[in-house]
Fold this protein.
Amino acid sequence: MEGIEDDVRFIKQLVVEMPNWKKLFVESNIPEKLTPLKELSKNLWWVWNTDARELFQQIDPEIWEESAHNPVVLLEKVSYQRFLELENDKSFMSRMNEVLARLQKYLDDRSALPGPQIAYFSMEYGVHDSLKIFSGGLGVLAGDYLKEASDSKVNLVAVGLLYRFGYFKQTISAQGDQLANYEAEQFSKIPVQPAFDQDGNWATIEVEYPGRTLAARVWEAKVGAVSLYLLDADFEENRDDDRYVTHHLYGGDNENRLKQEMLLGLGGIRALRKLGYQSDIYHCNEGHAAMIGLERIKDYMAENRLTYAEAQEVVRASTLFTTHTPVPAGHDSFHQDLFFTYMSKFPKQLSMDWDEFVMLGKTVRHEDHFNMSYLAANLSQGINGVSMLHGEVSKDILKHLYEGFFPEELNIGYVTNGVHYPTWAAKEWKELHLKYFGADFIDNELDFDLWDKIYKVPDEEIWNLKKQLKVKLIDYIKQRFADTWIKRHENPKLINEVLSKLNPNALTIGFARRFATYKRAHLLFRNLDRLSRIVNNPGRPVQFIFAGKAHPADKAGQDLIKYIVEISRRPEFLGKILFVQNYDMNLAKMLLQGVDIWLNTPTRPLEASGTSGEKGVMNGTIHFSVLDGWWVEGYKENAGWALPLERAYDVQDFQDELDAESIYNIFEEEIIPTYFSRNEKGVSEGWVSVVKNTIAQVAPNFTTSRMIRDYQDRFYKPQAERKAKLAENDFALARELAAWKNKMIGAWDAIEVKEIQITDGIANVLRIGEEYPARVVLDLNGLSPDEIGLEMVITETSPEGNHEFVNAIEFRVDQVNGSECTYLLNLHLMDPGAYNYGLRLYPKNKKLPHRQDFKYLRWI
């Protein structure tokens, strides 16, 4: 025994070496006959082409859902055996080749495009959920715009940033708290490809940061015939903190935001140059990309030997600034110390000193922040809001840039946002439109007479179509909701109770958007007893479906979500009020197509435009909203419901109380009775009438077809013509205007007022209909009378004591004696009241595009 024990004691212990792991890459191997699928997957045209999407879905419906409708991922996950089956499926092969032929014809038809080339810059683009470079309305609008530019054969190229993590994925905890989850994107699994420069190399650009240089690679996403170029800084050539620049959309601190906007603006122009683009118009979608103007001025100075002032003439003429923000605090600005740290070397390239340079982003010298919207406005001839009302609001926000002018006089226009019909209209509606509107409807959305054909559609057909879409929505939500709650380990009994109460026969109201406090998602819950009576009437069932994200830094917005989740768990609201997590484009489509009412309750006038309701009306979903944003223009009697535009109370809480009561009343007295009043076929003729009016009278006004036509007519074409004139003959007109402005600046203070005679009585009482002469004599000190305008500005005094603009009446030149010029005006007032008047000098030149192009004014 002792010998055996000794043997055991000395048995050598086995040591297992760790394997030397090596990478093995296995690419999806699609049979050669199926390679068109790869080509189709790389162009986001499939996003708005029903046949293309159904083709991918047919490959494997389950993987299609698992991949969140991303064909690149789908083609990687499908088994080779399945591809072999499809290769021998004549029906599938025929369908695939037909879809490919349609794409090729679509692109061939757009190979040579007329009109000015537009370079479009935006911080975010919502083209599809598979390309996670957007957060909400601004991005979805930009994505729709690219699709429409492709469809409408507009010569456009776009620039943005490619984010590694994008915006967050939302989950809601069992307690109702919003949790933000960021998932890293593998660029090989999304529809982007490296962009190659003119030498065939992967295009890269550089942007100077303090003490180092940031490098960025350029990727290309094909959106139909439009190229979207995306800059990516997340690679080993950059410092770790600089790689973070393209990690998160709107992520990090203010310094990271500045670094992002430098990359987008300065780097975006450099990328286009590297790729060989020389665009005619540069469209700055929000102030994030305002530095495109600085980079372009620098280039003109270096390459065309223009002065700063001459280059600015050309850049302003060819730049359009679209602002989406209705409140001053929403416009990006950077403390001057931070701004100096990053931009201190740039003024030298413009032959400017620092004090001159920073005034491009300020209204007064003592301001301590540099405002990017001010920079964009100062370097843009065209400025527009995104609805008629927002255009007026924008005048008030930007008025400090134009001292001496009243907001009503500012040359700030508007183009009301629209939505891309092929993306947002349900397949069922497209088929109905094809049946009744005609095969050419999709190419003639601006023919409003075609939309009127909706009145020829039988009521029962529309009623059943809407019911079909609602059933599809309920099934989708049940699946999505159950999956979420099971993962959260919720009580199965609670899950079953909620899902069993979701009712496809109930009047269904949707409320889904970004959860900011001004959106007033809480308004519906001010009187819970009354709300309970509305949703719990067994003869007239009603249910509300909520969705939306709050910014991770917006605690108040997150609290609103938690509050709604808590309310939805109360016994009287279980299954009648539902919050669906992780609002994305796919959920948005299902909601907008499936609900009966789209509810919107913003604080007036803080909704710049809003486009979700526009998507709803494309699908016969009736809009019920405050008269704000687009609904001011869209609302028609018997084509939706509205709360008044005017505020009744200055105290917001009182206004909220009034609006909540109005919402309850409209539901109880108008909406619910109309929906549940049925004929012998079970159809609500009154409801269908409102649906038809919505489609005929509202929807056609809010397509991206109309929107892009407005941009072409109001901005792109006129500005492109002016830019071409400025550039003719070695920029002769640009040089002439810069010299003239410089002359006027030098002589402006030397203009001397010699005499002012206003008829006696102007300080007393004037009689309506009678004329009162006014005479002013100026010593122009060498300036021509054609270069100096004089006007009488008439105002009224508001209850708050402010001057409100009434009119500006031009003096005429009567005689010139040496350097003295006499101006006359016959004042002829036709409206009674108490008025104020002032006399205002301004520089005149017929070659200016508008008055604010040269902001010099003088009150005398």
About this structure: The mean pLDDT is 93. The first helix runs from residue 2 to 9. The longest strand covers residues 212-223.
